[in-house]
């Protein structure tokens, strides 16, 4: 299949969208920006062998993950997604079916969040599959939520159970876009991040940016069933998996306690359960359990550069 035949196939299946004035096919997409809201831009690249195993996952699930991880980054800023561009490096040996299934997976998730694919780039090579999505969004009237706003005394909360994502969750999660917007409308959020590298590692990003520390209470950390299952094979405890496993893709939400005490009691946001797992302190990252308080290394998934 030649590149342009695939592009024509793709264009014929790309629906119109009120904000997309010119979509796939031109050198540049044209998207209407009728509001003064700040633009948010994020990008994420997935590589076969590192972020997924194509033979196990299949191209449609890979496409879904590629769109979902970018939507999760948008959720972490309490942003509204608007449009996406996608660049792929397709293995020459893979054939047309891979390209089509990849696109359909991207579209499934994009359509679910009213996020049209407005363009991108298609290449082929002798290497494995690579896919990069760039997502464009906008801030709400409450503004984008940074990592840098945590304060001493704030609560540290998460939006779901953690650990063991490698058993399947890392491919099939739902990005918390709607939930983040509802939380941000409920009360001011001081800092937020999605858990892509692990709870300890990603919380540490907030602490470094905010210039404070945090204490997590071990008994409060919600542990996924997959973490318990994985611990039987790995020799690590379920709690270690919950603290360090990547691609949980839940949100760490840092808020003033008076703002979210009612939310914790009422759980008004459908689709999630909010867990209060710790508090911000002056410095350090700590884990408190029956044995007392110990330093918690900010360990998690790392892409090594050599």
The helix-strand sequence is HEEEHHEHEEEHHEHEHHEHEEE
What's the overall geometry? globular
CATH class placement of the largest domain = Alpha Beta
Question: Into which percent range does the helicity of residues fall?
Answer: 25-40%
User: What's the architecture of the largest domain, going by CATH?
Assistant: Alpha-Beta Complex
- Name the CATH superfamily classification of the largest domain: PurM-like C-terminal domain
* CATH T-level fold name of the largest domain: Phosphoribosyl-aminoimidazole Synthetase, Chain A, domain 2
Topology of this structure?
Layout: H1 3-12, E1 20-22, E2 30-31, E3 39-47, H2 54-57, H3 59-76, E4 79-91, H4 96-112, E5 117-125, E6 130-139, E7 155-158, H5 169-172, H6 177-186, E8 191-194, H7 199-210, E9 213-217, H8 225-234, H9 238-244, E10 251-255, H10 257-266, E11 275-281, E12 285-289, E13 292-295
Parallel strand pairs: 4-5, 9-12
Antiparallel strand pairs: 1-2, 3-6, 4-6, 7-10, 7-11, 8-10, 9-11, 12-13
């Amino acid at each position: 299949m030649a590149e342009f035949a695939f592009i024509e196939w793709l264009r014929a299946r790309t629906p119109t969208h009120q904000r997309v004035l010119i979509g796939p096919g031109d050198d540049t997409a044209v998207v209407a920006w009728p509001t003064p809201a700040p633009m948010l831009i994020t990008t994420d690249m997935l590589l076969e062998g590192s972020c997924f195993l194509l033979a196990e996952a299949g191209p449609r699930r890979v496409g879904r993950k590629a769109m979902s991880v970018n939507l999760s980054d948008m959720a972490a800023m309490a942003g509204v997604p608007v449009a996406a561009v996608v660049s792929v490096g397709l293995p020459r040996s893979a054939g047309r079916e891979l390209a089509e299934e990849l696109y359909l997976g991207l579209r499934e998730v994009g359509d679910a969040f009213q996020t049209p694919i407005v363009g991108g780039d298609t290449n082929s090579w002798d290497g494995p599959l690579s896919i990069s999505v760039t997502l464009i969004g906008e801030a709400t009237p409450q503004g984008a939520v940074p990592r840098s706003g945590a304060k001493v005394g704030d609560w540290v909360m998460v939006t779901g159970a953690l650990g063991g994502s490698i058993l399947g969750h890392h491919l099939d999660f739902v990005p918390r876009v709607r939930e983040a917007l509802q939380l941000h409308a409920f009360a001011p959020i001081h800092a937020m991040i999605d858990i892509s590298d692990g709870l300890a590692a990603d919380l540490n990003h907030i602490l470094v940016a905010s210039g404070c520390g945090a204490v997590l209470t071990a008994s409060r950390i919600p542990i996924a069933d997959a973490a318990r299952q994985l611990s039987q094979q790995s020799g690590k405890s379920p709690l270690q998996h919950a603290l360090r496993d990547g691609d949980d893709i839940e949100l760490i939400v840092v808020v003033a306690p008076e703002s979210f005490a009612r939310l914790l009691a009422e759980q008004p946001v459908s689709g999630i359960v909010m867990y209060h797992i710790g508090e911000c302190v002056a410095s350090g990252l700590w884990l408190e359990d029956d044995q007392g308080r110990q330093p918690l290394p900010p360990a998690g998934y790392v892409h090594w550069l050599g």
